[in-house]
Amino acid sequence: MTESTASEPTDGQPPRKPVQLTDVADYEDLLEEQDLVLLEFVTSGCGICASMEPVLGTVARSAPGAVATVNAGLVPDLAAEFDVRSVPTLVVLRDGEEVARFDDGFQPAESLVDALEAHAAE
């Protein structure tokens, strides 16, 4: 899911495709640029995670905020910070604070868009 990286300039606008966060610094940079973020924690070889890729692409194009993916195995400090116990785990952040969480498997785009829209106006 390396469609984009967090280091690409966004001019404060959310990227319209998911970004891959490869370390804690990428995460911190994203939070500095974006008020609303959907983080997806995945691991290599996770079938459900792979099936979420097109869903996250849809969400990134249609919802407010940024969409980012973190490989929990490669960035364990961030996974531990969010107490990730299963993958995929999706976390909605508003101003760096968790406001919604989905940790029960595949999520349809509509559910994720609704969660982002609900917290966009705060």
TrEMBL record:
Molecular function (Gene Ontology), one example: protein-disulfide reductase activity
InterPro entries linked to this entry = Thioredoxin-like_sf (IPR036249), Thioredoxin_domain (IPR013766)
Record's GO cellular component, any one? cytoplasm
What segment(s) does the record annotate as region Disordered? 1-20
Q: Which SUPFAM superfamilies match?
A: Thioredoxin-like
Name the domain of life. Archaea
* One Pfam family this sequence matches: Thioredoxin
Composition-biased stretches (Polar residues): 1-10
Xref: PROSITE patterns: THIOREDOXIN_2 (PS51352)
Q: Which residues form the Thioredoxin domain?
A: 1-121
Instruction: State what protein this is by name.
Output: Thioredoxin
